[in-house]
Write a structure and sequence with these properties.
Helices cover 76% and strands 0% of the residues. With 107 residues, it is an all-alpha fold. It has one domain: Orthogonal Bundle (Helix Hairpins), CATH 1.10.287.
């Protein structure tokens, strides 16, 4: 069953693809294009997820959500951010309301 360990394994697989041959690895081809291209691809996947959520089947939403998470992890790897840093931020937010968290954001 998928859990945080599944996400960590996915991230390690993605990170291991850095520097691999972009001709043989889709992940390597994304990483080779840099964070900007990875962010663009994440945006495309986010739109596809929204479309699936608003007018398609549950199965399509699940499929697109998996793509979205994969592309988010690729962007994080390309940007030098680790899952542990994301988990730490989520832990920091646990126990406070969303309104409170937004009000306390820097900037």
């Amino acid at each position: 069953m998928a859990n945080a360990e599944t996400l960590n394994t996915l991230f390690e697989t993605i990170r291991a693809r850095k520097g691999s041959d972009p001709e043989t690895s889709y992940t390597a081809s994304l990483l080779a294009k840099g964070p900007e291209k990875c962010a663009q691809k994440l945006g495309e996947e986010a739109v596809e997820t929204v479309i699936a959520a608003t007018g398609q089947s549950k199965d399509q939403l699940i499929y697109e959500s998996a793509d979205l998470i994969y592309h988010l992890w690729v962007l994080l790897a390309a940007s030098g951010v680790t899952p542990e840093e994301i988990y730490a931020e989520l832990d920091r937010r646990t126990g406070q309301s969303g309104h409170e968290e937004k009000a306390n954001r820097p900037g």
